[in-house]
Amino acid sequence: MMLSFFDQFMSPTYMGVPLIALAITLPWILYPAPTSRWVNNRLLTLQGWFINRLNQQIFLPINQGGHKWAILLTSLMIFLITLIILGLLPYTFTPTTQLSLNMAFAVPLWLATVIIGMRNQPTAALGHLLPEGTPTPLIPVLIIIETISLFIRPLALGVRLTANFTAGHLLIQLIATAAFVLLPMMPTVAILTATVLFLLTLLEVAVAMIQAYVFVLLLSLYLQENV
């Protein structure tokens, strides 16, 4: 029985229990725990340097009130990167190919930024719906357009993650299948195809880091508008 290429995106179950919860919990076990010693090992030093550089890049344009989100957004980015890279291993499942999970990340955080803006500076938050100097006849139309674009933001965050990694995993599976089929018939072409597959896997790792960074960066921009 031949399986569909899309079967890899189905949430695996064991005895009727979905294993997506295990796939989400497992990355936290892999992170090294912080220590109170003055001198850390190389892994902890590299982890601290990476987190510091990330915070500087994301929170530099945001005022002091938005820095409270540093731990949340940094943890989210590291978590997304780990989930996606683990999903590139053979016989594993990538939770970020599920739109429901990505929307569960995007909607609450986007909604929190909107609520913060409406609570702290309601006039400025509502002012984003109507650019200054808009002609009077265009005011109703622009308010509707800006409102729609506001509510599309979390959908764009979730769909961007889902589409990128669904397409990447499908392409990897197609090329891997082609390499296995060509191996007995044309070994040279199969080796070239396997080389392309290896390069594509490296590209997918880079895409994982970039997409996780873009996800957190867009959330920080939404936060910057409302604090």
From TrEMBL:
The chain crosses the membrane at residues 12-31, 69-89, 101-118, 138-159, 171-199, 205-223. PANTHER family: ATP SYNTHASE SUBUNIT A (PTHR11410). Component of the ATP synthase complex composed at least of ATP5F1A/subunit alpha, ATP5F1B/subunit beta, ATP5MC1/subunit c (homooctomer), MT-ATP6/subunit a, MT-ATP8/subunit 8, ATP5ME/subunit e, ATP5MF/subunit f, ATP5MG/subunit g, ATP5MK/subunit k, ATP5MJ/subunit j, ATP5F1C/subunit gamma, ATP5F1D/subunit delta, ATP5F1E/subunit epsilon, ATP5PF/subunit F6, ATP5PB/subunit b, ATP5PD/subunit d, ATP5PO/subunit OSCP. The gene is ATP6. It is found in: Mitochondrion inner membrane. NCBIfam families: ATP_synt_6_or_A. Its main location: mitochondrion. This is ATP synthase subunit a. It comes from Coilia dussumieri. One of its GO terms (molecular function) is proton-transporting ATP synthase activity, rotational mechanism. Belongs to the ATPase A chain family. It catalyses: H(+)(in) = H(+)(out).
